[in-house]
Every structure is written in C-alpha cells, then in structure tokens.
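Dear all,

This email documents one entry for the complex benchmark we are building for the journal club exercise. For each entry we list the sequence lines for every component of the assembly. Then comes the predicted three-dimensional structure of the complex as a token string, followed by one or two observations. Please use this as the template for your own entries, and keep the labels exactly as they appear.
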Amino acid sequence: MKNGALVFLTVFIALGASWCGFVLAPTRQLGGAKQTAVLNSTDLYPVGRPGEANLGLQVYRANGCAACHTEQVRQSGVACNVVLTSAGKNPEAVSNLVFSLKLNGLAKEVADAVSDRVSAAGGKAEIRIVATGPDIARGWGKRQSVTEDYLYDDSVQLGSLRAGPDLSNAGVRAPDANWQLVHLYAPPSEVKGSTMPPFRYLFDVRKIGDAPSQDALVFPKGFGPPAGYEVVPKAEAKELAAYLLSLRVNVPLYSAPFTP
Amino acid sequence: MSTKEKISDGAPVLRSSPATEGGSVPASRLVSSLAPPIDRSCQVPLLALFGGAALWLVVGSVLAMIASIKFHAPDFLADSAWLTYGRVQPAADNALLYGFCIPAALGVMLWLFARLSQAPLYLPFVTVAAASLWHLGVLVGFVGILIGDSTGFAWLEFPRGGSVLLFAAFLLIAISATATFGQRRERELYPSHWFLLAALLWFPWIYATANLFLVAWPVRGVVQAAIDFWFANNLLFVWLGLAGLGVSFYFLPKLAGRPLQSRYLALFAFWTLVIFGTWCGIPQGAPLPAWMPALSAVAGSLTIVPVLAVVAIMWQTLHGSTNCEPRGGPFCFIRFGLASFVLSALMLIAMACPQISRVTEFTWFGLAQTQLQLYGFFAMTMFGAIYQLLPRAVGFEFPFPKLTRFHFWISMLGVLLLVVPLAVGGVVQGLKWANPDVAVMDVSTATLPFLRVSTTGLLLILLGNLLFALNIFGLTFIWKLALLRRAIAVLKTPLEAEGETGSAFASLRRDKEVQA
C-alpha cells in the first residue's frame, strides 16, 4: 500500500459492510417491530410494563444489576410430552400401556404414534410441547427468550454474566413484593449463603412512630431491625421491586412455542 | 537527515542520525535542551495524555479491587450507592479502557506518526487541549457511572456529556495525527501506518454509531443489544487490535534489532483482521435473529487467519533477535503483549463456536478474555512503548528505571493470576450451570476460590500500576523542574535585544535557534 487513501478505503469497505450487517440490517428488520399475538390466543404480547416498573428498569440500570444477572433464557430444543387425560372405559389396559411407554421428551412423530396407541386402547392423551435445556430445567422460564420479549425496554438489560440466577422470570418465580424487598435489603435472609451485595441504601431504617408504616418490611425470623425500628423502602426500592415483579416472559409465541 | 535502507525482503526501515532516532540511543546520553524538534514537539501532548492515563490506570485498578473484594465480603462498602458492585465494576472497566488504554495509545500514535514522518507534530497545542478534553470527558463519564447515570450498555456506560467530550477530543487528535502523517518525507507507508490510520478512522465511526443509536435516539428493543455487541467487539477486539498491533510492529523490529518479518505478512494480517474481525462479537445464545450469531460464528472461525499471521510475524521477527536489554525491559512488555493478543483472540474464537459457547457464555470466561485483551495485551504493549519512547521524547531518563523492570514482572504475574483462574473458574461455572441438578448457590460457591486468586492478581496489577504512575509523574516533575530552571537561568542572564526573556517559551525558542 503506497498511500493513506487506500487504507481509508479498506477500512471504509470493511467497517461499512459490518455496519450494514449488524447495525442497519437489524434496525430494518426489527426496529419497526410491533406486538405479536400470543400462540392460540387473540391476546397481544408484550404489553408495556406499568409505570412504576418502568421506573424500576431505570433503577436496575443505574445500579448495574446486569453486571451479575442476565435476562435471557436459552433452550437447547423442543420436545413433546404425552399426557394421559382420560383412561376411558378400559383403564387397566390403558395404564398398562402407558407404563410400558416412554412419554416424555419425544420427537413429534413418536409422540403422535404414542398418542394414537393410547387412543386405540380407548384412552385419551394430549400432546404437550415443552422447551428443553438446562435453563428451562432450572425453572428460569418455560421457553427461550426471543426478540419480542424486549420490545418496550429502554435500555435493554441482557447482561453477560450469571454470577447470580437469570431474572427473565423473576416475577413468576418470586411473585411476593415483600420477598423481593427483603431480599434486596438483606439477601442472606432469603437465600442462605447469598453473595449478592445488600442494597440497604435503597431503604430507610427508622424508629416506629405512632403507628408502624404500611410499607415496613416483614422479615423472616432473626433478620429484622432492632425492636422499635422498622425498615421502609424508598421510592427507588419500590420501583425496583415492581420491575422485578414485572419480569414475566411466560407466554407461548409463534417463535417460541410451548403448551402452557 | 534520514536515509532509507532497503532490507532484502523489501521492508523499508527508516534509519536516521543517532540524535533523532527514537529507539537506538540510550536515553542517558540525551540532554533535555538538545532534544530534537520532532521529539520536542511531542513533549507536552505526550505528558498530558500519559499523565492522565496513569492516574486513571491507578483509579481503575483501585475500583477493580473494591469490586473484586465484594465477592468475598458482600457487605464491604455496601452502604453507599456510588460504591455498589454494579457501579464500581463498570467504572473500573471504563477507567481502564477509556482512561488508560485509548489515551495512552493516542499518545504513542502521535509520537509514532511524527517519528515515521520525520516531521514535528502538527498543531501540538491542539493535541494538548484535546488531551485535557479527553481526560475531562473520562472524568464526567466516570462520575456519571458512580452516581447512577450509566447508559446501561456494556463498554458504552459513559453518559452523554462524557461521550461528547471524548468524541471531540478524539477528532482533534486524529486531525493532528493525520496532518502529521501528511507531512511525511518518506512516501512509502510502514506497516504500522496501516494499522494506526485504520484505528483513527475506526473509533469515531463506531463510537458515533453507538452513541447515536443507543443514547441519543435509541432504537427499539433488542436491536439495542445487537448494536452494543457490534460496538463492543469493534472497540475491544478490532480497535485495540489495530492500535496495539500497529504499535507492536513498530517497536518489535526495533527492539529485536532486525526488520519486521515481513511487510507482506503484516499487510495480510491487517486485511484479514479488519475484514473478518469486525463481524465477530454477537454471542451465540443472544436472543436475536438466528442469522446474526451464525454470521459471527463464521467470522470467528475465519479470524484464526489474522491470528496465525501475527504468530508467524512474531516468530520470524523474534527468531535470531539481537536484543540484549536486561530482562523485564520494554522488549519483554511488547512480547508479552503480543502473546496475550494471540491467546485472547483464540479465546474469542473459541467463544464464537456454538458448542463451546454453550458452556462459556454467561460465565467468568468472557471476563477473563476481556481482561487479557485489555490488560495483558493492550496495557502491557502500551507500557513497553511508553517506557521506550517517553525518556527519548522528554530527554530525561525515568527517575526509577529499575522499577520499570519490576513493573513488568509484577504485572505479568498479576495478569496470569487474574486471567487463568477466571478462565478456569468460568469453565467450571459453565459446566455447573449446564447441569440443572447443581443448585444456584453451589454454582456461585464453586467459583469463589477462583475469584479469590483473581483478587490477588488484581492486587499485583494495582501495585504494578502504582510503579508506572510513579515513574510517569516523576518524569513529568523532572521535566517541569528543568523547564523552571531554564526559565530562571534565562531571567538571570542580561536582557536580550528581543526583550522576550523571562518566559519558558523564550528559552525554548532560544534552544531552537541554537539548534538551527
């Protein structure tokens, strides 16, 4: 290469190509995305988060929760489970048949065949589609995360390290606001041996006045503040808890099907 | 002043008179007032860029220590919002990348462009202003992260105010560097030129894209994540690769005492790095349209090509090296940096492979790779370059030259103790996450011993950084003292005809005349 212009041209072409590929193309493909229909339903997904939860996303961002938690469930594949719904008129034959067959984790064709054999024996069987993989087996979600799940989030908090569990379905797994708040205030009180740092600065510890505050946290035995004191969440803590409770990616979609 | 020698393989090596040759004169022989004009034009910009960089390096490693300790004692400094893990960790990373790596590289680049052009730096005062602007931008961004103003995007956490300053400062420095490049006497480009010119264009493009699409007018939904992946890869892998290799390919042959082997291999590495490397970076499990991770996997496997080219260059250039500097000098830094680049690129390529990514994604393995790239490769290369060039540019030896060698050993050990446990711990962690029978708490407990060792590594790195800062600040002090002494000397001499005495600039001007 004899002159700088050639270097600039090389860079322009190389970086321009990847810019078109990884910046422009996904913006064109997904930038105008709208709500999609939930599988076998007329409901639309996703619905925006409530206002308080949306503020909570900003608390989540400001405190860098994504440094340790992901919000993306992976799945390795899809399988079919055959579930007996009715034993029919000849329960003994059907149950003998069912016990002799493998019912879970089947391919579609095998599941159909099993279902046919159960029907032939007089019973009724239903085929349920389930996602598979370690994340699903841990109960972190019913299906993998897909692009639709993040439609209304700004900024999107995918995270890249699981120093703690995935939070895609934090609201499904721990739907109690008090649990979430107590866990934020003193993680070991709810999860023994937790390495999560406490977020005490999101709470006020104060003397109980004439009447205890309605918001005061209810602690498990041995973890509360000293007698006569109460722990009250600040606005940010309430918003963060509302956000965590709003984390629910548990509806089946065309791009990520499962039988609810 | 300079004569060009054609070496048998066609690579031109610029040889010049000993007084102006950066790499070949023992610094002790140089006297400040006799520093050649090329070096003198770089003095203030380099000290401004490197001084701030040394400060951020120390600040960043202190915060990295705090973040690491939190894993052993979650209650440590937990009562202040600005010291919570999720703020300290990105603040430490950003201080290392934007505070040290980039300004250090910019300083080395400016000197290299002036040196390779055999011309003084163009508009040195603009670069001084740009250096202050850059470090001010880092300060704004750094404080922004700590007070909770982070944008929430990995490697782009600085809030808007900070990134605008960084962008403006980078442009100013790029203009000065390009203008200096335009003044070159030797028209033929040296391999470092390609890498560094590409780096000058690369950064404004990716930084502007990321800030416009993610911060100023954010795109919707998961596209944000896609753009952030693209940006982070193009900054951490490609930009650092371009700047680091460009600097390496200048100093490696100088220190090894033989020309770069070879120019064509370096050109090949350059082309393949910019063409394949820029498509890496989309994680295999990302919730994006499947074609994106698939494309990144292909690009990842092709990236083995530039990596092998770098290995070949390193092997052939170092084979038969005549270097006889004491162990632990700049040569060791540069070699260690190159080896780290190869290793970290191999880790990146491994993570682009879907089967391996199943285990390593979401684990400490990824952080091990980034730390190896940022510190093991880039920072170490910059240390070597700065230790080599700064005494020559300023005209004084470092105040504690033995500590520079100690810095090498302590940093090398620190990098090993930081990266190896994180990588091994990451694989252990990934295998445990992949087994749903292992409880969440057991996974996190299993990684703790590895994190403990990595904290020791961070401590060693912090010590090394302190040694570096000590030498940089010491040298700056000596330089300022000499400037002051000369100013006083000028004051004491009888008034000259121009009536310009009494200022340091007058004395500088006088020196220039003496030389002319």
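Observations: The CA atoms of residues 45 and 125 of chain B lie 7 Å apart. The longest strand of chain B covers residues 2-6.
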